[in-house]
Every structure is written in structure tokens, then in C-alpha cells.
Design a protein that fits this description.
The chain has three helices and nine strands. It is an alpha+beta fold and 175 residues long. The longest helix has 16 residues.
Amino acid sequence: MKTKFIIYFTVLQIIILGTMSCSNDDEISGDKQSVSNSDAILYEFSNQTFTHKLDIELSTLELEVTDSINLLDRLTLVYYTTEKNPDTWHSVPDKSPAKDYRLQWSLGENETDPGNYNLEIKAQRADDNKPYDISLSYDKIRVISVDFSVAGNITPKDLDTRDYNAVINYFGLEQ
């Protein structure tokens, strides 16, 4: 039963949040913070600018937890704000009719550095899925990782995971 549950949420996460690939690696810059509790972890990255793809490192090593955490076995939610609208949060994947690009993300384990994970945020042109070649700047990027045992009990009526503020309040991750 637990295996079916994990498979269900992994498939659901892939369908909802999706993954696609691009090129042109840009390294993370700016400030990095994390907040956690027994159910969820919040990572924050400030002042991010990239073209095509942004690589972000997520670490579980600095968290004050007794058990090891595998981020690949958790529900991952990604949000961002822009410098023009720092109070408006957008979820990734994101494709707005007003934009000529869309954002996707993927998460992988860093095989050479256990406890660290690589999150890639990719920008693609909306009309043909080719890499978006214009620089993008975000005021903040926040990544929330939720324990599947908790996420499995949440229904869409309980929580809209596209709403950053609702997710933060639900899991008590206020900064």
C-alpha cells in the first residue's frame, strides 16, 4: 500500500509539476535560507538571474532533523516572485498566456555529494519548446519539500498547492 502511495504521488508530481530539459547552465547566486518542521522544508533563494536554465543546490545536511531526508521521496513545490511584483507568488510550472516562455523544473540527487540535491529550473519558449534565450530575473525563488506521508492526506479541497501563501500557512512555514 505504501509503495502504491509513493508511486501515485510521484506520478502526480510529475504530471502536475512536469519536467523538461534545456541547455546553458547558470549557477545560483544570491542569498540562501531554509526553514523546516517535521512535515515540510522551505528553501529560499534571493536575486536569481539566468538564461535557459538555473541550477540550485538543495541540502538536507544543515537541517536539524533526527532522520535522514531524501528529497526525491517527497512532494516538491516551486514558487517565484519578480522584482516588479515582489508580493505576488507564481508556481512552477508556469505558463501564462501573457508570457512568451514557460518554466519547468526537475530534481535530482547529487551522486557525488550525499544529502545534496540539484534542482534545475528551465525556461522554454512557449510556442516551440526551444530554450528561452532572454535573461530572466526573479526576486525570490522558494522551494517547499513536503513529506509524502503528510501530502497523501491532503485533498484539493484542503489545499491548492499552486497558492504559495496557502501552502505556507497550511504547513506553518512562516519566515
